[in-house]
Amino acid sequence: MTDSEERETPAQDDAKKARARRLAALRGAERILGMHGVDTTIGERLAALTDAAWTVAEPGRDGDLYGDGIVADLEERVARLLGTEAAAYFPTGTMAQQVALRCWAGRTGNATVALHPMAHPERHERGAFTAVSGLRTVHPTTEPRLPNADEVRDFAEPFGALMLELPLRDAGYVLPTWDELVSVTEAARERDAVVHFDGARLWETTTHFGRPLDEIAALADSVYVSFYKTLGGLSGAALAGPRSFVEEAKTWRHRYGGQLFQQFPAVISALVGLERELPRVPEYVAHARVVAEALREAFAEAGVPWVRVHPEVPHTHEFQVWLPYSSEQLNEAAVTQAEETKTSLFRSWWEQGPPGLSVTEVTVSARGLDWTADDVRAAVADFVARIPGTA
């Protein structure tokens, strides 16, 4: 490789500098709606994990070896939470779902998976289902919501598995109603298809559905959950379902390279998340609804010509905000606000759809619970005044 090939392009260099500036502003903020693990330094993350570790693990205990010990403890806990016979720990959700759908394809004799085109495997995994596992994907709907029962029941070709992402993140963290979810799973089974839940953020759905996790999971034949999304773990995922299915999945986990020598740091962080974050998620969801309403009202009061908070009433503690400005304008306003006022209202914006229309995602977690509706309105007024070129 030549020196010129190793050198970053001006655009890459600008992006790196912008990210560094944004992270510095986020870390320096005294008020923020929600922090992510990547917002902290290695030292801060290790200190927090060490401080919490002994609440979920004995310091004198032996480390795990190829999935035993504390890894098995986490698997048993997830199975109990989801009401399934068993669960298997995976280093990534991408691998977990590859394995799940591959196993179901072998059991049903049909390698076609019906899912939404906005689902994570379609949008963010570089065609991994087809490239790695020989699966074929079809889309019962292209609407920015999960498919309904009629769309599943009347789809023009057979499929072996229906995969539902709960919530559908790229559409705005949206969920169906409970009755709609029941109906769509029943429609899949009428077609002799199994149902798999991409439940990376399943932890967030109990408030919207008004049901506990095990009752939600019971609608599916298998469920994947993430430990770093929602729960704040370092990494990792679990695949839950019938015992024979999970045992088969563990075989494929080994074949896919997921039988790691030791995994206790990530596993401990997952257990901490289950212990500390999971009980608070309904509180986050409730407050996200307060924040969303205050945002919508405040942008209207500030004279912004068009704004959309989506969903209008958030289904989880995460939602989208859309504004009619370029991402460059909005990112400058966001980072300047955090730098100068130590209040971070928005993380980052990107343009989507027509030119000049930008979207961001808002997450409300522990640090956001202190925000009142008036605090949100004041922060919005300050943010709007900082948007370049709008004075």
From TrEMBL:
**Which Pfam families does the UniProt entry name for this protein?**
Beta_elim_lyase (PF01212)
Keyword Methyltransferase tagged? no
- Aromatic amino acid beta-eliminating lyase/threonine aldolase domain mapped to chain residues: 64-297
Q: Keyword Nuclease on this protein? A: no
Q: Name one GO cellular component term.
A: cytosol
Q: Which GO terms describe its molecular function?
A: L-allo-threonine aldolase activity
Could you tell me the keywords of this UniProt record? Pyridoxal phosphate
* Gene3D superfamilies, sorted: Aspartate Aminotransferase, domain 1 (3.90.1150.10), Type I PLP-dependent aspartate aminotransferase-like (Major domain) (3.40.640.10)
Q: Name one GO biological process term.
A: glycine biosynthetic process
Cofactor annotation? pyridoxal 5'-phosphate
Q: Which family does it belong to?
A: Belongs to the threonine aldolase family.
Supply the name of the protein.
Answer: Threonine aldolase
